Amino acid sequence: MYFTDRGIEELASRRGQEEVSFDWLAEQLRDFVDLNPEFETAVERLATWLARDDDDDE
Predict the structure, then answer these.
(1) What b/e sequence results for 7-33 when a residue is b if at least 16 CB atoms lie within 10 Å of its CB, and e otherwise?
(2) DSSP labels for 12-33?
């Protein structure tokens, strides 16, 4: 198990029943990077991956 798995599991257990918009998610990611600029590259890669995830369905 990766260390990040614990955070993902906590997210799912605490907020798994909520529905959020991509606008909300984008704002949360921006806020996170503002507070933690050392994670800018990782957040950018995650956002790009999420944005392009459906490209494989074609």
Answers:
(1) eeeeeeeeeeeeeeeeeeeeeebeeeb
(2) HHHHTT----HHHHHHHHHHHH
**What letter represents residue 42's amino acid?**
A
pTM: 0.75
User: What would you report as the CA-atom Rg of the chain, rounded to the nearest whole angstrom?
Assistant: 13
Q: Residue 1: helix, strand or coil by DSSP? A: coil
Taking only the tens of pLDDT, the chain with its 58 residues reads: 566 788 889 989 999 999 999 999 999 999 999 999 999 999 999 999 999 977 665 5
